[in-house]
Design a protein that fits this description.
Structural class: alpha+beta
CATH superfamily of one domain: Photosystem II Psb28
Largest sheet: 4 strands, antiparallel
Strand content: 25-35%
CATH topology of one domain: Elongation Factor Tu (Ef-tu), domain 3
Radius of gyration: 23 Å
Length: about 150
């Protein structure tokens, strides 16, 4: 009888440890959120765009593809103070999951001065759409935005 109790204790303890929360996962998650608090849009890597864009979304009827069109009026990447940071090489949507990138970026000029940036992000499958929507949820929370259906 005594050996059966020892066996049950030895068998139950490892299973409870295996299904309990692991401190290493919690620490990794906490350090990840401490390093990255939200989502940002960048035109120059490492330089967060302060201007909040107007975003228009379209999606195919079957949900297999979609397009997000961004319009930034007077973005800070055109400021003289940010010129030393680098050149506009694309639009980078950065959050805790990683980075979404597009090179479809166009500047609008008036009287030789940059006025706005228009960028298009194309989603070719449902996974890209879902990933983009997760980014936009984080970005909208960080910038106090809302969603209006057409």
């Amino acid at each position: 009888m005594w050996s059966l109790k020892v066996f049950l204790v030895l068998f139950v303890v490892p299973l409870s440890c295996a299904f309990g929360p692991t401190p290493t996962f919690k620490n990794v998650y906490q350090s990840k959120t401490a390093l990255f608090a939200g989502a940002s849009i960048q035109f120059v890597k490492g330089l967060e765009e302060k201007v909040v864009p107007n975003v228009k979304l379209t999606r195919s009827k079957d949900g297999s593809s979609g397009v997000a069109s961004f319009n930034f009026a007077n973005p800070n990447c055109f400021d003289a103070s940010t010129a030393k940071e680098g050149e506009v090489t694309g639009m980078f949507l950065v959050d805790e999951e990683g980075e979404l990138t597009t090179s479809d970026v166009n500047a609008r000029f008036a009287n030789g001065k940059p006025q706005s940036i228009e960028a298009t992000y194309v989603m070719t499958d449902r996974d890209m759409w879902d990933r983009f929507m997760r980014f936009m949820e984080r970005y909208s929370e960080a910038n106090g935005l809302g969603f209006n259906a057409a």
